[in-house]
Amino acid sequence: MTSDEDKSRLPDDFAGKVRLFPLPNLVMFPHVMQPLHIFEPRYREMVEEALETDQLIAMALLQPGWETNRNECPPIYETVCIGRIVSHTRFEDGKLNILLLGLKRATIPIELPLSRPFREASVTLVEDLYVGSSTQERASIQRELLQCFRRFTPESPAAQDQFESLMNNRLPLGALTDIISFTMKFDVSLKQRLLSEANVEQRARMLLAELRKLDDSHAIDDDDRKFPPAFSAN
Q1: Distance, CA of 168 to CA of 172 (rounded, Å)
Q2: What percentage of the chain carries pLDDT values higher than 70?
Q3: Homologous superfamily of 4-126 in CATH?
Q4: DSSP letter assigned to residue 220
């Protein structure tokens, strides 16, 4: 696969097995890009294998208590985001910078026995569900989401250009909720709940409620409004 369109979807022969990259402070979403700095040997091996094969990595969030968990595989949340490495840079010391594009939600019915330096799992893909609302109702929610999100967009020309592009792209409501959920500096527990909600209308209403709360409290500063996001390290 070489085209941009091919990079934005799973391979046709995807068999449901993924490499897991658990982190305590990052929730990945479909439709977004995340830079990652890879320096631990096990994750360097994981990324090198991905680059040689399907370019896929599933980002997972560690559950609370991972700091004191003596298990070599501390618990992670069931819903993950499968991403594709769309670019990478290797350094002389073996570390890498990668750019990961979120592709699909998935749930983990089975985590595979640990036989590699990194964790792996069999996953079930999760599609966006559009139930319980009309096209007109969804359009109304989408307009309100964009209006609310605009109040948290930095005033810089680059950020405003990105927002205008978002406005003009006519994205499906599900994709819009994912982009906003990822961009906002919410607590990771809230982001995980948003990732885990497959019902698009429910997810949009949850997100809208949180944006309204922030707007009412004015509890956001310039650091909270940074985008695009900075590199995240493993």
Answers
A1: 12
A2: 83
A3: LON domain-like (2.30.130.40)
A4: -
- Report residue 38 as tokens: 């890879």
Can you tell me which residue has the tokens 């959920």?
181
Secondary structure of residue 30 in the 3-state scheme: coil
CA-based Rg of the chain, rounded to a whole angstrom?
18
Question: How far is Cα 24 from Cα 70, in angstroms, rounded to an integer?
Answer: 15
Rounded to whole angstroms, the Cα distance separating 64 from 178 reads 23
| pLDDT of 69 over the 80 cut | no
Q: Strand locations in the chain, DSSP E?
A: 17-23, 33-38, 56-61, 79-90, 96-111, 119-126, 232-233
Q: Is 87's pLDDT higher than 80? A: yes
Sequence ranges of the domains in the chain: 4-126, 135-225
pLDDT top residue among 174 and 72? 174
- Those residues whose C-beta lies under 8 Å from the C-beta of residue 121, and which sit 6 or more positions away, are 17, 18, 20, 58, 80, 108, 110, 111, 112
Tens of pLDDT, residue by residue over 166-213, are 666 678 999 999 999 999 999 999 999 999 999 999 999 999 999 999
